[in-house]
Predict the structure of Integrin beta-like protein 1.
Amino acid sequence: GPLCECHEWVCETYDGSICAGTCHCGRCKCDNSDGSGLVYGKFCECDDRECIDDETEEICGGHGKCYCGNCYCKAGWHGDKCEFQCDITPWESKRRCTSPDGKICSNRGTCVCGECTCHDVDPTGDWGDIHGDTCECDERDCRAVYDRYSDDFCSGHGQCNCGRCDCKAGWYGKKCEHPQSCTLSAEESIRKCQGSSDLPCSGRGKCECGKCTCYPPGDRRVYGKTCECDDRRCEDLDGVVCGGHGTCSCGRCVCERGWFGKLCQHPRKCNMTEEQSKNLCESADGILCSGKGSCHCGKCICSAEEWYISGEFCDCDDRDCDKHDGLICTGNGICSCGNCECWDGWNGNACEIWLGSEYP
């Protein structure tokens, strides 16, 4: 054929980097002398040899795919060469990374083995605007003017907690921008909101000018002048009220005849033999109700003197649950064997952060 005119410059990329192989007639030929075909790209810029795991000599350790020298790992594996396996199932990993709005790491982070790495938006790297276990907190939402270098959080009249402004007394609004006309002093207001409870609005509401608005807004189960009644306490983890054998009155179950227990879960009559009942109350170590309760009709009733003992076999200690303001799970969730299971809208290890909808 005709002689090939060489245009070496064609082998240069726009950014001036040059063919990583040999330039032949304006075409970049990649060096694949070993026949592996692992070096490719218009300028031979992709080198999939970088994906080979030294130990197994497999691409991405056999647990992922390689694109242009980078490994993309299958669920349950991570590391530059997908060499590390998670010690939890992909399902559990996903569960731990799911934010309150149902998205993985709030769509603002990467989930690796149940832990979110948030895409930080602060280029200085000092303090990320996005944080939280599931990247659910975005401090940018607190800024009156969104300017990365201004510290104008909550208009200077409040504190930013997980992207929400908690306004100082005398101010209100999403960014604490409105002054409030209240004739009560801050102390009087708090006193009115506290009543005989331990905390203003029982830790379940917002105190404004001596009046409580209970969380979550519009949920009829939390009510009372100081939000002292919380009918969610009558529900088990599946949401059944008083076990279906009673009614709830201001957060306490009133059981029908023939039933008893905090959640009316125990029948007074039992059609089991003592033997059958005992078998059901024995934990794996053969001890009846872990030695911390009595057995009734195949269910453990944990000792009332030690209020913190709970669990199917009285094997849990509620003191292991995180506290906030001296309250276990801040009163906004159920302590389930050492971990707080927060009610809708609440988040944080001790269910202390309200992430639900704004006030109506």
